[in-house]
Design goal:
By secondary structure, this protein is an alpha/beta fold. The protein folds into four domains: 174 residues, Beta-Lactamase (2-Layer Sandwich), CATH 3.30.450.40; 175 residues, P-loop containing nucleotide triphosphate hydrolases (Rossmann fold, 3-Layer(aba) Sandwich), CATH 3.40.50; 108 residues, Orthogonal Bundle (Helicase, Ruva Protein, domain 3); 56 residues, Arc Repressor Mutant, subunit A (Orthogonal Bundle), CATH 1.10.10. The chain contains 19 helices and 17 strands. The protein has a five-stranded antiparallel sheet with strand order 2-1-5-4-3, with helices on both faces.
C-alpha cells in the first residue's frame, strides 16, 4: 500500500516517484497502460494535476497518447481543449515551458477558458520535451497549484519532470522498435509462406531420406523445407509429439549452407531453468558449486552451424528474456562471467504447444514468439496421413532387419490392420509397434494376428480409450505399396454365401481370441448379445478354448 504524501518526507517524494515510474515502465509492453499509470503516479505522489503525454504521429503531428481524469478515447474526441500549440513549441525547440500562472500565457488562453477548474486559483503549467536524442518527438505536461511562495520550487519540479520525460522517451523508443521489428518479421513470414505455396509438391530430396511419406501433407512439408533451408530465417516446427520434428530440423541443417558445420540439439523441457542457462550459454570456472572448469555452452558449440531447441514452449518467462537477447543481438555472457561472447547461429525450434494461446495468456513473450515464428512448418499427425503408414511400417521393419540380421516381411492383412490404427503417439508409436511386433514374431511373416492390437496387448490404446471417447473412424485403407510384404495365399473359388460364412467365422474366432475366449466380452466387442454369440459359435462349430 502506498504511503500517504502527507506522511512522507517531502524531499523524498521525487525519488519515490522516479522509483515507482521506472517499475511501471519496465513491467509491461502495453505502452498506453504504462503511460496512464505514470500520470497517475505524478498525481498521487506530487500533486500534479491534469497530466498529459503528447507524441508525434507518423505525419509528425502531435497527438494525445495518455491523459488523467478521463479516458484517452474521450480526450482524443474533444473531451479536453488541450494546448497543442504550446506542446508543438516545446517539441520543436526542445526547450521546456514553465508558466507560473497559466492565465498569463497567451498560448494557454483557449485551454484556460475551457477549463473551469483553473478559475479562482493560481495554477502553474509545466511542459517538458520527450526525447532520446537531440530531437524531441513528444511532450509531458502537468499542472500544479501555486500558493504564492517563491518560485524556487519550479526548478526542482522541472528537473524531476525532465527525468520522467527521459524515462518515457526511452520506453516509447523501445516500444516503437519492437513494433517495427514485429511488422518486419510478419512481412518476411508472409513473403516466405507465399513463396512456399507457389512451389508444387516435390519428392523427398537429399537430407529428407529419413522423413518417410508420399502423402499430400508430407509433400507440402518437403517443399517448405526445401524453400526455407538455404536461408538464414529462423524456423519453428509445429506438431504433436512423435511427428518427426527432430528429423526435419536435421534435414533443414543438411540442406542449408551450414551443412558442414555443427548441428547441436537441446531439449528445453528436460532441464531446469538454471541448468538450461548453463547448458546453452556455458559457465566460467567457479561460477557455481560443481563448476570446476570453464565450459562452452550449446550456442558456442553451434557457432556458424545450426542449433535445434526442442520443446521451446516449455521455457520459463525469465529465460525467455535471456533467449530473446541472444536471438536479437547474437551475443551473451556465460554464467558467472562478464565477457560478451558473439555467435552466428541458425535457430530451428520445435514445440507441440499452442504458442498463440500462451502469448494471449501472458505465459509466452510476444516478441520472442515473433522472433521464433519467422517460418512455421506444421508436421501433420499420422492419423491425417494414414496412407503413409504402410510405407513407414516397411521402412521401420527394414531398419529392424538390418540391425538384427533378420528377413521379416509384412502380410497384406497386417499392413491393412496397421493402417486402420489410431496411433496417438504418431510416427514414434508406429516405430515402437513395428519393432515390438518384429521382436515377438517367430516366423518370417508378420501377419495380422501377430500385432499387439489383435492380441489385446496394445498399451498405447489407453491414450485414447477413455470413458466417452473413442478413436476416430478410419477410412478404407489405400492400396498398400510394394515392399517387404508376403503375398497372400491363393484362395480357391467358392460360392458367395460360403465366402460370407468363412468371413463371419474368422471374425468370431478373432474376437474370441482377443477377449481370451470370454463370450460376454466378445459379444460386447461385436455388438451382439451373449445369446446371439452363443448361437453363432454353435452355427460355425467353433469349440470353446480354456485359457
Amino acid at each position: 500500500m502506498r504511503t500517504s504524501p502527507q506522511k512522507t518526507n517531502e524531499s523524498a517524494l521525487p525519488l519515490i516517484g522516479v522509483y515507482e515510474i521506472s517499475k511501471v515502465l519496465g513491467a509491461t509492453l502495453d505502452l498506453d497502460k504504462a503511460l496512464h499509470e505514470v500520470l497517475n503516479i505524478l498525481s498521487a505522489y506530487l500533486d500534479m494535476r491534469h497530466g498529459a503525454v503528447v507524441l508525434n504521429d507518423e505525419s509528425g503531428k502531435p497527438a494525445l497518447a495518455a491523459v488523467t481524469g478521463m479516458s484517452l478515447r474521450m480526450a482524443q474526441s474533444g473531451g479536453i481543449k488541450y494546448p497543442f500549440t504550446a506542446a508543438e513549441k516545446v517539441i520543436a525547440t526542445g526547450i521546456p515551458m514553465v508558466t507560473a500562472n497559466a492565465v498569463d500565457e497567451p498560448l494557454l488562453a483557449d485551454y484556460v477558458t475551457a477549463n473551469a477548474a483553473l478559475e479562482g486559483e493560481d495554477v502553474s503549467f509545466f511542459c517538458v520535451p520527450i526525447k532520446t536524442t537531440e530531437k524531441a518527438f513528444g511532450a509531458l505536461s502537468v499542472e500544479r497549484v501555486w500558493d504564492g511562495t517563491p518560485h524556487h520550487a519550479f526548478e526542482h519540479d522541472l528537473r524531476f519532470l525532465t527525468m520522467v520525460a527521459t524515462l518515457i522517451g526511452q520506453t516509447v523508443n523501445l516500444h516503437r522498435k519492437i513494433v517495427a521489428d514485429r511488422e518486419t518479421l510478419i512481412a518476411d513470414t508472409s513473403r516466405l509462406q507465399k513463396q512456399m505455396a507457389d512451389i508444387g509438391p516435390t519428392l523427398p530430396i537429399r537430407g529428407l531420406e529419413d522423413v518417410v511419406g508420399n502423402s499430400e501433407a508430407m509433400t507440402r512439408v518437403f517443399a517448405q523445407v526445401q524453400q526455407a533451408a538455404p536461408t538464414k530465417a529462423a524456423i519453428l516446427l509445429r506438431g504433436e509429439s512423435g511427428t518427426g520434428k527432430e528429423l526435419v530440423a536435421r534435414a533443414v541443417h543438411i540442406l542449408s549452407k551450414r551443412a558442414q558445420k555443427p548441428f547441436i540439439k537441446v531439449n528445453c523441457a528436460a532441464l531446469s531453468e538454471s541448468v538450461l542457462e548453463s547448458e546453452l550459454f556455458g559457465h566460467e570456472k567457479g561460477s557455481f558449486t560443481g563448476a570446476v572448469a570453464e565450459r562452452k555452452g550449446r550456442f558456442e558449440l553451434a557457432h556458424t552451424g545450426t542449433l535445434f531447441l526442442d520443446e521451446i514452449g516449455e521455457i520459463s518467462s525469465n529465460f525467455q528474456a535471456k533467449l530473446l537477447r541472444v536471438l536479437q543481438e547474437g551475443e551473451f555472457e556465460r554464467v558467472g562471467g562478464n565477457k560478451t561472447v558473439k555467435v552466428d547461429v541458425r535457430l530451428v525450434a520445435a514445440t507441440n504447444r499452442d504458442l498463440e494461446a500462451a502469448v494471449n495468456e501472458g505465459s509466452f513473450r510476444a516478441d520472442l514468439y515473433y522472433r521464433l515464428n519467422v517460418v512455421p512448418i506444421f508436421l501433420p499427425p499420422l492419423r491425417e496421413r494414414s496412407g503413409d503408414i504402410p510405407l513407414l511400417a516397411m521402412y521401420f521393419l527394414k531398419q529392424f532387419n538390418e540391425e538384427n540380421g533378420r528377413s521379416l516381411v509384412f502380410s497384406h492383412n497386417a499392413l491393412n490392420a496397421l493402417q486402420c490404427c489410431y496411433f496417438p503417439g504418431n510416427v514414434r508409436e508406429l516405430e515402437n509397434c513395428v519393432h515390438r511386433t518384429a521382436t515377438m514374431t517367430r516366423g518370417q511373416v508378420i501377419d495380422e494376428m501377430d500385432l499387439s492390437c489383435r492380441q489385446d496387448t496394445c498399451l498405447s490404446s489407453t491414450l485414447w480409450n477413455k470413458p466417452g471417447q473413442a478413436p476416430p473412424p478410419r477410412s478404407t485403407p489405400v492400396p498398400v505399396p510394394t515392399g517387404p510384404i508376403a503375398p497372400p495365399p491363393p484362395a480357391p473359388p467358392i460360392a458367395q454365401d460360403e465366402a460370407e460364412d468363412a468371413s463371419e467365422r474368422d471374425r468370431l474366432v478373432q474376437a474370441m481370441e482377443k477377449c481370451g475366449w470370454v463370450q460376454a466380452k466378445a459379444a460386447r466387442l461385436l455388438g451382439l448379445t451373449p445369446r446371439q454369440i452363443g448361437y453363432a459359435l454353435k452355427k460355425h462349430n467353433i469349440e470353446l478354448r480354456q485359457l
